Amino acid sequence: MKKVFMLVLLCLFFATALYAADVKIAVVDIQKVIRESKGGEEARTSFTKEVESKRKIISAREETLKSLEDELRKASAQERAEKGR
Predict the structure, then answer these.
(1) Average pLDDT per block of 10 residues along the chain, 85 residues long
(2) In Å, what is the CA distance from 21 to each residue of 11, 16, 18?
(3) How many CB atoms lie within 10 A of CB 56?
(4) What share of the chain is helix, strand, coil (3-state, %, to 5)?
């Protein structure tokens, strides 16, 4: 019984070793693919355009916020001046 078990175990060992010989492992550099592929270049260009449009929106909102802040400071200063009289 031990001999049969050892024979089966040995066969399984060699079968897995032969199967493993056919297995290939590949490594893909995603950054390189994105930099050098046509799709990656299009995605980067699209992303850059979207970021720039969002920056313009944020800049416009910042300007609006600054002007509103200035108005509030002027109104506050006038109110203080009127209360001080």
Answers:
(1) 78 66 78 88 93 98 97 92 78
(2) 15, 9, 5
(3) 10
(4) 85, 0, 15
